[in-house]
Amino acid sequence: MKKITLTTTFTVFETKESLPKELHDLMNQAIAIRKNAYAPYSKFRVGCAILLDNGQIVLGSNQENAAYPSGLCAERVAIFQAGSIFPEAKIVKMAISATADEKPVTEPIPPCGSCRQSIAEYEIKQETPIEIFFMGESGPVYQSDSLRNLLPFMFDKKFL
Question: Which of 22, 75, 107, 127 is catalytic?
Answer without folding.
Answer: 75
